[in-house]
Specification:
Shape: elongated
Helix content: over 70%
Structural class: mainly alpha
Keywords: Membrane, Signal, Transmembrane, Transmembrane helix
Order of helices and strands: HHHH
Amino acid sequence: MRSARWLAVALIAGSALSIGACLANAVPSLLGEVGTPRAERSGWAQLAEFASLILDSGWAWAAMAVTVGWVVRAPSRSAAAACVSLSAVPTVHYWVERSAARFSSSG
């Protein structure tokens, strides 16, 4: 894989996982169903909770790192790409959550 392409693959994969998890975490509050018993929640809120459990799990992060390493193919770059993708997840998650909090407090 070309010189900077592996870095782009790693950053995009980590960012996608993080943004997906943030969106899944935000659905119940967007629907106004925070604190509502599970049996009384809408189907969308329950689906988002399930997606959140999957995307926030450790094995999803590990699968993403292995997949990024497999896509990159070159051994040294594969390891670096996996590390970059795993570093991107909490970094992007922090900034998305911070931006969402700022957006929700200004409205």
